Amino acid sequence: MKNKNIVLIGFMGVGKSLVSKILGETLKKEVYSTDDWIERKEGLLIKDIFAQKGEELFRQMEQDAVSYVAGLKGVIIDCGGGIPINPLNMQHLKETGVIFYLEAKPQTILNNIQGQAHRPLLNTENPKAKIEELMARRHKFYQQADYTIDSDNRTGHDIAADILKILNK
Ligand code: S3P
């Protein structure tokens, strides 16, 4: 497993970025975020890409980001929440990595994202309903991960510890 990438997927607000950072520091590996990669390439924030170019183009950019990061070796990949809905993305990521799905309930996600305004899909009147709707659609894609990690009301360190335990087996 040494040269395989460690790939984190899951809904917005489950803690992928925090857990990636902890894993990166613990394992002394580089961390790549697909959202950061896109923002740097476009010179725009994700919310402005959605507003100016639309979601469809953003999904295309995600595919390019995955092609790039899945081509790396031995890194940690923090995937935007929508990456797994494109089967090509999951195929690429699986070829070179072990995929962990950080799973949390809509209420946990809602609590985690409260006060954050940078996620265009959740800037709605009723974010809880939106989370439930998207989660119902996405669950089957997330479940294609190699491992599912319970991320409900757990700290980033607890979640990272579970992942490290699996990697050390
Ligand atoms: C999205 C998740 C976001 C970001 C964009 C769309 C999604 O990333 O890519 O706002 O469709 O779930 P995070 O999961 O890192 O918040």
What does this structure look like?
By secondary structure, the protein is α/β, with parallel strands linked by helices. Helices cover 54% and strands 13% of the residues. It has eight helices and five strands, in the order E-H-E-H-H-H-E-H-E-H-H-E-H. Strands 2-3-1-4-5 form a five-stranded parallel beta sheet. Helix 2 (34-42) packs across helix 4 (55-69), helix 3 crosses helix 4 (55-69) and helix 6 packs across helix 7. The longest helix has 16 residues, at 127-142. It is globular and about 45 Å long. The structure holds shikimate-3-phosphate (S3P). Shikimate-3-phosphate binds at residues 12, 16, 35, 46, 80-82, 119-121.
What small molecules does this complex bind? Answer: shikimate-3-phosphate
The coarse overall form would be globular
Q: Could you give the order of strands across the largest sheet?
A: 2-3-1-4-5
* Termini gap: 10 Å
Radius of gyration: 15 Å
- Low-confidence residue ranges: none
Count of runs of 4 or more consecutive helical residues: 8
Instruction: Let me know the largest β-sheet.
Output: 5 strands, parallel
Per DSSP E runs of 2 or more residues, the count of β-strands stands at 5
Average pLDDT for all residues: 96
Sheet-strand content, in percent, reads 5-15%
